[in-house]
Amino acid sequence: MFNKNNKFKINSIIIFLIYYIKINKKNKIKKKNKSKKIQKKKQKKIFISTKKKEKNNTKKMKLELYLIFLLLISIESYDRNKAVAYAQKYATGVNHDCNKSRWACSPYGYFGNDKCKYKRDKDGFGDCANFVSQCLIAGGMNFQKCKVRSCGVILGANSLGKCLKNNYKWKSECGKQLPPPNYIEKGDVIIFHEGRCNSNKNHAMIVTSGGKNALVSGHSPHVYNVAYTSYKKKNYYEWIHFTG
Fold it and tell me: How far apart are CA 141 and CA 23, in angstroms?
């Protein structure tokens, strides 16, 4: 038989065990909840990290596409046949509305005196480089790397030559009454210089037929398919060749 003290001890142990079990159960639940919270935080971090990576990858992809685009537009595409076809169409005419000012882009300006009967331009421009620029644009050139004037063209034979040589790496060869080098083709450019190759007195034309007896076309004056030897006064010939 248990005495009162033993009964009290047993009851105390039972109560302690029950209390211990409850406490342990609560701790397990807390740990489980804590574990869930930690897991959720980890998942959230992973989600945020994934989103950041996706955002960074999207930015990187956009940058790569933009760089590819810049590369593509920097590679000049030039169709000689289209340039020459334009020269054939407008060498003896104008692609301009003569009822408007010489600077009006309709679609191009006109700086000669032959067709529209304008007074001589105060800046001293003829229409030679303007016309050759138009031919090159028709062939696919865009002159984005050069300083352009009205209507996206280059005015002045010197400026046109420098643009093609320095910014677009066209091959150049100049000499006194220099015959066309064997690489000269239709769609290339010739600049006639007076007195020396670096003269400021010059005239630009487009080559409309290649070979050793190359023919050239241009404005100021308006001519189509004339012999390059026609220009005796400007006797230094600079041949400029598209190498693409």
Answer: 84
Q: Which amino acid is at 8?
A: F
Query: What are the residue ranges spanned by the domains of the chain?
Result: 1-75, 80-241
User: What pTM, to 2 d.p., does this model score?
Assistant: 0.69
CA dihedral 54, 56, 59, 65 (to 10 degrees): -80
Query: Architecture of domain 80-241 in CATH?
Result: Alpha-Beta Complex (3.90)
Sign of CA dihedral 163, 168, 173, 177: negative
Strand partners, 203: 192
Run means of pLDDT, 10 residues per run, the chain, 244 residues: 56 70 68 67 70 69 64 69 98 95 94 84 76 97 87 94 94 95 97 92 96 95 95 89 90
Retrieve residue 46's tokens.
């992973």
From the list 166, 238, 169, the residue with the least C-alpha distance to 199 is 238
